[in-house]
Amino acid sequence: MLTHVTVVPPEGDWYEVTARVPDVFVSQQHKPRDKKLYEYYYVPETIECFTGFTLLVVERELRPGPGMFLARREVNGKQQLFSFLISYKGLDQTSTRQPDMQTIGRVCI
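Now predict its structure.
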């Protein structure tokens, strides 16, 4: 599938490329509500939260519930990619999100 992918290098600005990615939506387990709600992020080298050569499919529409989420945060004047988890402890929801993180969306794969 040909789509736009945001490349997140460890140094420098993020940029977009058009790339061929696996079509995860042909699977019976992954039925998208609307393909326009999904974005792709590529991490070419290891950063704090992800190993290198990682392609992330991110669902932009935020829904309640547990999962891993992608966020951006400004560090020393530059945007950096981070992740945080939301889980349940009994009936209470807990999160590792920092207050200055801007949520991008839920990581699907």
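Strands lie at 2-7, 15-20, 38-43, 54-59, 67-75, 78-89, 92-95, 102-107.
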